[in-house]
Specification:
With 278 residues, this protein is an alpha+beta fold. Helix content is 25%, strand content 19%. A 5-stranded antiparallel beta sheet has the order 2-1-3-4-5, with helices on one face. Strands 6-7-9-8 form a 4-stranded antiparallel beta sheet, with helices on both faces.
């Protein structure tokens, strides 16, 4: 999965250009690796809540061991990538987190994600060159044959799989996953929703006719692709409110609460139940 989104970074890990001498990141005062090199941590987790069972720095040998460990089907696997600074540390650098793990206690739900952290005042490296359009194309390829009940591309995602809407409604992410065929967990710039949710909103043709979306496509799996605007930066103001009003009948009830009086993220801070009946 990662090599499709940032091939130059992954290729660097594979072709020997990267020095990754440490198996325990951040231990001691020594640099993590060569200045300017890519550094990656490989993590296996043992349950849906993220209990770490194995953590090692990337190396050719460590990668093979990591892959063999996946044959035992752990609860999840993660890869954390950062470009080291001029002194060989991970400070103030843009980074990526790739996650694949179970999202329910009994393993009937799975979550896959790729998240990016950027530091405005830090050096913008190879990871920072990934664009919103790159992420959009990557998701488009993934959902062609993957039966997704909820997915998306946005710039206000929360750690551990919680959406911004769930965060501001104090709603548990695992509940959101369990109800993702009947309740929409959020409405980011690009949203992929379950067929059942699209049907409750009138189906792809009705969603297209609403005028709230730049693109509406029914995917081969029956899920529906909803892209709000052509560019992520345009998804605000009236465009955001149009999407909110359209999907309000399938949103979880409850008015989102601002954080310390500040409205965060690309969500509307209104009660959705006032905008149509499910």
């Amino acid at each position: 999965m990662p090599e499709e989104l940032f091939p130059d970074v992954i290729a660097g890990l594979r072709d020997g250009e990267v020095a990754l001498p440490m198996s325990r990141p951040g231990v001691g005062d020594s640099p993590w690796g060569e200045p300017g090199s890519m550094w990656a941590a490989l993590v296996r987790v043992g349950n849906a809540w993220g209990r770490v069972t194995s953590r090692r720095a990337w190396s050719a040998r460590g990668w093979e061991t990591f892959l063999k460990g996946l044959a035992k089907f752990p609860a999840g696997a993660e890869m954390h990538i950062v470009e080291l600074d001029a002194n060989g540390y991970s400070r103030h650098g843009d980074r990526a987190h790739i996650t694949a793990r179970i999202a329910s206690e009994h393993g009937q739900w799975f979550r896959m994600g790729c998240e990016f952290e950027t530091f405005p005042d830090g050096p913008h490296n190879r990871i920072a060159r990934i664009t919103n359009e790159d992420a959009r194309r990557f998701l488009w390829r993934m959902v062609q044959d993957m039966p997704v009940t909820y997915g998306g591309v946005g710039d206000d995602w929360r750690p551990n799989g919680q959406t911004m809407l769930e965060m501001r409604q104090a709603r548990d992410a695992m509940l959101g996953v369990a109800e993702s065929r009947s309740v929409l967990r959020g409405y980011p710039w690009v949203t992929v929703c379950a067929p059942e949710i699209a049907a409750r909103l009138g189906g792809p043709d009705m969603l297209r006719a609403s005028g709230a979306f730049h693109e509406v496509w029914e995917l081969p799996t029956g899920a529906v692709w909803l892209q709000a605007t052509e560019r992520l930066t345009d998804y605000e103001g009236q465009a955001l409110h149009r999407v909110f009003r359209t999907v309000a009948p399938v949103l979880p009830p409850g008015k989102p609460k601002p954080y310390l009086g500040q409205e965060m993220g690309r969500i509307v801070y209104e009660e959705p139940r006032g905008f149509g009946a499910a």
